[in-house]
Amino acid sequence: MKTKPDLSFGKLWNISFGFFGVQIAYALQSANISRIFSTLGADPHNLSYFWILPPLAGIIVQPLIGSASDKTWTRWGRRIPYLFIGSIVAVLVMCLLPNAGSFTHIINAMTFGLIALMFLDTSINMAMQPFKMLVGDLVNEKQKGLAYSIQSFLCNAGSLVGYLFPFIFTFIGISNIAKKGLVPDSVIYSFYIGAAILIFCVIYTSLKVKEMPPKEFEEFHHITAAEKKEKTDFFSLLKHAPKVFWTVGLVQFFSWAAFMYMWTYTNGAIANNVWGTSNTGSAEYQEAGNWVGVLFAVQAIGSVCWAIVLPLFKSRKFAYSLSLALGGLGFISTLFVHSQYLLFASFFAIGFAWAAMLAMPFTILTNSISGKNMGAYLGLFNGTICIPQIVAALVGGGLLHLTGGKQVHMLVLGGIFLIIGAVCVYLIKETILEKEEKQ
Q1: Three-state DSSP class for residue 74
Q2: CATH of the domain at 326
Q3: Which residue in 20, 144, 383, 398 has its CB near the most CB atoms, within 10 A?
Q4: What is the pLDDT averaged over residues 70-86?
Q5: Domain presence at residue 228
């Protein structure tokens, strides 16, 4: 039986290098969307509704991309054409979105921003998903953990760069304030530079990575002639999905709902809890917006450090659960911290949860599914990321009212969600995982 050979560290790195650029784009979106829409005049109680678009795009796009790429073969490969097209669209939109307030003579700024956000997240999803599939396609079981760890490192490194851009540009003298209804230059230039890095990284991966031709792929993934003829659809795949798909999905629900509230409400929470302002037009609010980027960068550093520690645990379940619990405590601590610098400890701990969320679920899942439907299953699994974000966004405004209108209370709620997710980890049953833990 033919098995995939070990790959050099350089080849494993090249497979995921483009993810660095994609994650810069995602980080810029995550850290600045609430800031951009608040600057354009959005009500804080409606902010969560703007965040419905990104996961909605993901839940539609990623399964389609996964399924389509399973059946695709071109001279450039099966996954790479999709990530390249998605990246090109993302670059164009990144140059337009932060300028939403400059097109008011043609279209309402909020409407333009919403349309641009929809295209941005659709294209980021289109570019992001193939990297996860490439690891499943090209890397053997022994090296898959290392491959996803490299991807996690590049993801966090990209996040670190994207989060810090507005702070750095402000530090070197680029304006961090703008006229009412316009986004500061520090944010606009961040999106421009992020777009340039994104296309460079994706071109690098596209040139360096050679995907398996169909026949070779079938041999390595042990796909029989009968399996090739078998026709599957999303419903039948879900019906026959391994139990681990659903149990990990439950953990994912609470984890991603928590981070949705972090991305949505941290800007307002920090501005009010540390800077003492809710005025989105004030210099203090924009300064808080820059500091949110710094805090998210600290989270990324915490994630990188914790990713090094995670493999040292003998029990993967314990490591996964502990990571989420510590992240939950980090969220809850923001209620009691009123110093911008002490918040470093809170967000460093939040990074522990993020490190586990990036590596653990995909390692567990890809060890339990066949190569024939790898892309489709990974696309469907993205629903465990998108659905909780959609649900959290839909109920976010109502929960904000119930918690007294203070955005920091939504971060506390996110912490409680992560702790629930930590408990749910022990519901996961996965054959390979159980065997490894007994050894």
Answers
A1: strand
A2: 1.20.1250.20
A3: 20
A4: 83
A5: no
